Amino acid sequence: MQKNLLKESKDSIKLATDYLKHGKLVSIKTETVYGVACNPSNIIAIKKLYNLKNRPSFNPLIIHVNSVKMASDFVDFTEDAKKIAHAFWPGPLTLILKKKKNNLINDFSISGLDTIAVRMPNSQIFLNIIKNFGNPIAAPSANKSGYISSTTAQHVLDSFGSKVDLVIDSGKCELGLESTIIDLSNEPYIIKRLGVLDIKKIYKKTGINVKTERKNTKNINSPGQLEKHYSPKTPLIMNIKIPKDGDAFLSFGKNYIDNHKPSLNLSSEGNLKEAAYNLFDFLRRLDKLSMKRIVVTPIPKHGIGITINERLNRASS
Ligand code: AMP
Ligand code: MG
After folding, report:
1. Fewer CB within 10 Å, N- or C-terminus of the chain?
2. Which ligand is nearest to the CA of 60?
3. Which protein residue has the closest C-alpha to ligand 1 atom 3?
């Protein structure tokens, strides 16, 4: 067993908190994907994190909190933001808000922007660690920049090996897709990253309108959104119903229970939630086989299927 891997326990939570206080990097499960956490006020820790991920310095980190109150120390938590947080936190929704002058978040962790992306994760272990740490925690997804996100502790080890100080194994992430990101720092409010939660649900629960970003907008303050992302090393092709020899086949639904090898089915029941849960795990598994291509059957474009298609699209570009 890896020396830097521990199961979730009181002891590992305590160790994680001590590590964060000493500028170390700790991978922790959230309900979306595994994050790699660091103290956002410690520039050395932040630089270590960017190096570990090979993340461009212009791509800001999401700051994790355990309450609106904690976030209000470093962002301007508007009335609309409060309404939305009240409805959806803790949960897979990140809010971009205007930065307040503060000593908690070093400029380097937010790429010098005047806005900060904040989220309260629905992950008991993460919330416990924030509580013990007593301050907000920065945590991007625990994968090399551009590669597939991690939804298990093993994925984190596959990505970073012993270069991450500690990985806490809390099992597989319940949702399997990164948080929805909405920008509330200016009106109209805009969705910056699709996730499990869509703007219709936000409107239904709060009456607040969030718009889809116009294409070709270059003044985007979410640089991560422009890149090739979520990509396996193996070329990925979408909307293929019949695989060829040498292909790794990723299918969805009961029409594709066939004899091709290797193949994995995201959900033989045709359940999109299950497909989201399996997506990154199965992509990583098929990528490890180093076949010529990974080919993926059509995935329905409704509900979470829209987000799954978006991730696959970027993985294939
Ligand atoms: P990850 O690091 O994988 O969790 O992704 C975080 C995403 O949040 C990236 O796409 C960042 O560009 C985006 N992000 C973080 N902070 C901001 C911000 N202040 N404004 C816009 N996007 C942000
Ligand atoms: Mg990421």
Report:
1. N
2. 1
3. 141
Cα 284–286–291 angle (5° rounding)?
130
Query: Long-range contacts: 73-79, Cβ < 8 Å, 24+?
Result: 73/100, 73/102, 73/104, 74/99, 74/100, 74/102, 74/104, 74/105, 74/116, 74/136, 75/99, 75/100, 75/115, 75/116, 75/118, 76/100, 78/184
Atom of ligand 1 nearest to the CA of 140: 2
Please give the Cα distance from 82 to 65 (Å, whole number).
Answer: 14
For residue 224, give the ligand nearest its CA.
Answer: 1
Residue listed under structure tokens 């956002």: 40
What distance in angstroms lies between residue 51's CA and the mean position of ligand 1's atoms?
17
Q: What is the pLDDT of residues 32-53, one digit of tens each?
A: 999 999 999 999 999 999 999 9
Q: Please work out whether the CB of residue 225 comes within 6 Å of at least one atom of ligand 1.
A: yes
φ/ψ of 307, rounded to 5, equals: -70, -40
The pLDDT tens digits of the residues spanning 81-132 come to: 999 999 999 999 999 999 999 999 999 999 999 999 999 999 999 999 999 9
**What are the boundaries of each domain within the chain?**
5-212, 236-315
> Which of the following CATH numbers is that of domain 236-315: 3.90.226.10, 3.40.50.10950, 3.20.20.150, 3.40.50.11030?
3.40.50.11030
CATH for 5-212, among 3.40.50.300, 1.10.340.30, 3.90.870.10, 3.40.50.720?
3.90.870.10
**Any ligand 1 atom below 6 A from CB of 111:** no
Helix (H) or strand (E) holding 276: helix 272-288
Report field, pTM of the whole predicted structure over 0.90:
yes
Alpha-carbon gap, residue 193 to 265, rounded angstroms? 26
Tokens of 78: 């508007």
Strand ranges inside the chain, DSSP E? 5-7, 26-29, 34-37, 62-64, 93-98, 115-119, 137-138, 166-169, 180-183, 189-193, 210-212, 236-237, 247-251, 263-265, 293-296
Q: Is the CB of 145 under 6 A from ligand 1?
A: no
